[in-house]
Design a protein that fits this description.
heterodimer; A: alpha+beta; Ubiquitin-like (UB roll); DNA polymerase, domain 1; 2 domains; 5-stranded mixed beta sheet; 6 helices; B: 744 residues; alpha+beta; Aldehyde Oxidoreductase, domain 4; 7-stranded mixed beta sheet; globular; binds FE2/S2 (inorganic) cluster
Chain lengths: 159, 744
């Protein structure tokens, strides 16, 4: 098995695995990260969402061999318990989950949206998250959390 | 247990008395009879130290047999313990659902956890608080009523003692007496507050929160290779080729059960794919027909028939009556957990340890022991969270798969997760159902006769549903199989297939009938609300149909027939909060017709009272959109108001998704729903705005809410569609195609 070196949350990591191994398993098993979740392995649910060079991507269908020279960002990389990202904080403030299995995908997809569009409308938020499934029915709370994070960030920026 | 079994013709004729179909006393209850009954879960788990530990380090450990399944139960129970013990909420640690460590509280299901475990903890904590105060009084040589306590510090000026000082000598190895009274609502500090969920910080930041996140030293990864159809028999499979694949640690074949373990997860997946590709099976087309033919088929299947309730008025009024009747249908529907089922298992020195997201670790242990053919004492099951399950999904089966595979991994722990296709293909679905409703209105336009007749497969085939069988899938496929047995329908008042078939309305003549279809060509079990979703759909749609026949506004018509004051209150508040206008009509078929509907249920006729008002739009193509839902709920004493809102709101959205979109597909041989592409559910653009209004009843006991809103939601949507279009949708789900045909 070949070695692959990838940058995850700003740190260079080398893993030995097959070329077609999905990034999801590298993150979860080699790098022991919990953020990205296995939901379908078919790019249908969004539970496994990470960022690759700042864009939301589905790690369950991203082969590790495609990541040379790219930056991978995971839920762990955007904030920590002591220093939560505004989206993480907003999800707590809005209690925007029930089981929380979809939460990783929701936050990472929302971050990609806010990075590109810091003041999205409600409709834009819903459209941006439409590919992320939540079975618990936490959708409205999730939308409110994204709105809260957006206005917090905009207040911070003085926008 | 006694059930009344009659031929269909006979029970249609039967009338005159209320038939008490079932005795509530199971074997456990009979064994307990010698001792005084204790409240809630204390009755079956009577030792105080089984529930509570006061630790010298200033922490309190609370044990509960219930588990977190995304409903926030551990947060609510910690709130209860903090208030009853008079300690800060932050001091409480929760240990949940572990066959080695916690009380056996059966299943975490039926919206019973706050009632069962919460009630137990209220009494047990009040008692322990009393014991601590008594111990302090004795030490300080002062009367108990001179003492006060705050956050575990007992004050009696000038001295001070804490629970933590007293912990060493406190003996909780004794039975609870339930003599100490829990606090009245006026003294609650944490109960009644919307406390944030304890489990969320880890979940938003990538902490280990789920069984999928477990990593044990030496752990390998497992996958199972299920047959292509339920009763397929394995003829041959190329085990040797799979064994030779990179990283493969073990290939296990026993009868038609195949599983594989590998060093790396993707290696296990590849090996499972290779095994599946080489496997040859014997299959027979033995599933029910699908589509409209399914419902005719259900009505012809062999059934156990029973009269659930029959009431005949003493003074039946004569006079002219108007009759109405209608038939409602619901397809098989899936739990569709976002995270496929998963378990970690290890076999060491003949003992199995299983980490599982089963809703019932004790029942699971019993059935696992059967499937593994080992004494129960050799199996330990510990609950670890997973994605929301909404009832009996693949959790227990994945636990069995992992345990069977652990036999082949030489003591190494194995984490086995189902693939998406395993979950859709093998989870037990919510049963398809047919419900025939008949009613008669007298000249005053009141309902005088009501009949509700349900055809349904079983709604609980969970572990231990029938002690004669085992209900974990892996065991069924072994060379020496451990099969399931036919489960009994749970008795009223909660019922299962007949859940909520008995109306809460005061109809003078009632006949509630069940045809329980024990053959299960398609595997079924508990999906959130069991039969209540479809029974309330039928009941609350039909009462609207009767209201229409009577020419009376649906809110007024409901209130006319409802004496229960708490039921009336949620209906009235829902009408008020939604700005309900009597006799308002939708604008009929148009580019976008608008309509509004209401529905009500008290879940199980025992748990929370909930009313939902739904607003819908229906376009020319038949697309229904639920734009808004206003709901009201009376859950007695509200322990965590935001938790209640979250459950009711989530239930509305999930039920609306079932109602408009969901239906499991199959041909005569195989389940063909295998991925989200085959089973669309609500996404963000489908979701209505939701309002939840709580009627807090601080002096009433807490009532479960986890399944309160699904029944009212489906019927409110059906009623709103009828209001919008003038046409009645009775066949779930309400897809655009069906609504287009209906309104054409
Ligand atoms: S797990 Fe990647 S999209 Fe579902
Ligand atoms: S919170 Fe459970 S799937 Fe979204």
């Amino acid at each position: 098995m070949p070695d692959y070196t990838l940058r995850v949350n700003g740190v260079s990591r080398t893993v030995r695995t097959d070329a077609d191994t999905p990034l999801l398993y590298v993150l979860r098993n080699d790098l022991e990260m919990n953020g990205a979740k296995f939901g379908c392995g078919l790019a249908q649910c969004g539970a496994c969402t990470v960022h690759i060079d700042g864009r939301a991507a589905r790690s369950c269908v991203t082969p590790v061999s495609s990541l040379a020279g790219k930056n991978v960002t995971t839920l762990e990389g955007i904030g920590t318990l002591d220093k939560l990202h505004p989206l993480q904080k907003a999800f707590l403030d809005e209690q925007a989950a029930q089981c929380g299995y979809c939460t990783n995908g929701m936050i990472m997809s929302a971050k990609a949206l806010l990075d590109a569009n810091p003041k999205p409308t409600e409709a834009q938020i819903k459209t941006a998250l439409a590919g992320n499934l939540c079975r618990c029915g936490s959708h409205n709370r999730i939308v409110r959390a994204v709105q809260r994070a957006a206005s917090a960030a905009n207040v911070a920026k003085g926008a | 247990m006694t059930t009344t079994t009659l031929s269909r013709r006979k029970f249609l004729k039967q009338s005159g008395v209320i038939v008490a179909s079932f005795s509530l006393a199971g074997p456990a209850a009979i064994a307990q009879q010698a001792r005084a009954p204790l409240p809630g879960g204390l009755n079956n788990n009577r030792m105080l130290d089984g529930w509570i530990r006061i630790n010298a380090n200033g922490r309190v450990t609370i044990h509960t047999g219930k588990c977190e399944i995304g409903q926030g139960i551990l947060t609510a129970l910690a709130q209860i313990a903090a208030d009853e013990l008079d300690v800060a909420y932050e001091r409480i640690d929760m240990v949940s659902a572990d066959t080695a460590r916690t009380p056996d509280e059966g299943m975490t299901a039926g919206s019973l956890s706050v009632e069962g475990s919460g009630t137990a903890l209220r009494f047990a904590c009040a008692e322990v608080r009393g014991m601590l105060l008594a111990a302090a009084a004795q030490k300080l040589n002062i009367a108990v009523d001179k003492l006060s306590v705050a956050d575990g510090a007992i004050s009696a000026s000038p001295t001070r003692l804490t629970y933590w000082d007293l912990a060493k000598d406190l003996n909780l190895k004794r039975e609870a007496t339930a003599v100490a009274k829990p606090k009245p609502a006026s003294q609650h500090k944490v109960i009644g507050k919307s406390m944030p969920r304890r489990d969320f910080p880890a979940k938003v930041s990538g902490g280990a929160a789920f069984v999928q996140d477990m990593r044990l030293p030496g752990m390998v990864f497992g996958r199972v290779v299920r047959p292509p159809s339920y009763r397929a028999q394995l003829v041959s499979v190329d085990e040797a080729a799979a064994k030779a694949m990179p990283g493969v640690v073990a290939v296990m074949r026993d009868g038609s059960f195949i599983a594989v373990a590998a060093e790396r997860e993707e290696q296990a997946i590849k090996a499972a794919q290779a095994l599946r590709a080489s496997a040859k099976w014997n299959e027979t087309p033995d599933l029910s027909p699908s589509g409209a033919a399914l419902y005719e088929h259900l009505k012809k299947m062999p059934s156990r028939d029973s009269v659930i309730k029959s009431v005949t008025p003493v003074n039946a009024s004569g006079g002219k009556v108007t009759s109405v009747e209608a038939e409602y249908t619901r397809p098989f529907q899936a739990h569709g957990s976002i995270g496929p089922s998963c378990a970690v298992a290890q076999l060491k020195d003949g003992k199995y340890t299983v980490w599982t997201h089963s809703q019932g670790v004790f029942p699971l242990r019993t059935d696992l022991a059967k499937a593994l053919k080992t004494p129960i004492a050799n199996v330990t099951c510990t609950h670890v969270e997973s994605s929301g399950c909404y009832g009996h999904n693949g959790a227990d089966d994945a636990a069995c798969d992992a345990a069977l595979l652990a036999r082949a991994t030489n003591g190494r722990p194995v984490k086995l997760q189902w693939m998406r296709e395993d979950e859709f293909g093998w989870e037990p679905f919510g049963s398809a159902m047919v419900i025939k409703m008949q009613a008669q209105l007298d000249e005053a336009k009141n309902i005088v006769n009501w009949q509700h007749e349900t055809w349904s497969h079983p709604h609980s085939t969970r572990p231990t549903s029938n002690p004669a069988g085992s209900f974990v899938l892996g065991g069924w496929h072994l060379a020496d199989p451990v099969p399931a047995a036919v489960p009994n329908n749970s008795p009223q008042p909660s019922g299962a297939a007949d859940r909520n078939a008995v109306p809460l309305y005061d109809f003078p003549r009632q006949n509630i009938l069940l045809h329980y279809l024990t053959d299960m060509p398609v595997r079924t079990s508990a999906l959130r609300t069991l039969g209540a979703y479809a029974n309330v759909f039928a009941l609350e749609s039909f009462i609207d149909e009767a209201a229409l026949a009577a020419g009376v506004d649906p809110v007024e018509f409901r209130l006319r027939h409802m004496k229960n004051p708490r039921a009336r209150a949620v209906i009235e508040l829902a009408a008020q909060k939604s700005n309900w206008k009597p006799n308002s009509k939708g604008n009929g078929a148009g580019n976008e017709s608008k309509g509004r509907g209401i529905a009500f249920a008290q879940y199980k006729n025992l748990a929370c009272y909930c009313a939902v008002v739904a607003d819908v739009t229906v376009d020319r193509a038949g697309n229904v959109k639920v734009t808004r839902a206003v709901s009201t709920v009376d859950a007695g004493l509200a322990v965590n108001p935001d938790g209640i809102i979250n459950q009711i709101e989530g239930g509305i959205i999930q039920s609306a998704s079932w109602t408009l979109k969901e239906q499991v597909k199959f041909d005569r041989q195989r389940i063909t729903t295998r991925s989200w592409a085959d089973y669309p559910i609500f996404t963000f653009n489908d979701v209505p705005a939701v309002e939840v209004h709580i009627i807090n009843m601080p002096n009433e006991r807490s009532l479960g809410v986890g399944e309160g809103s699904q029944g009212p939601t489906v019927a409110a949507i059906a009623n709103a569609i009828a209001n919008a279009t003038g046409k009645r949708a009775r066949d779930l789900p309400f897809t655009a195609e069906k609504i287009r045909q209906l309104t054409a």
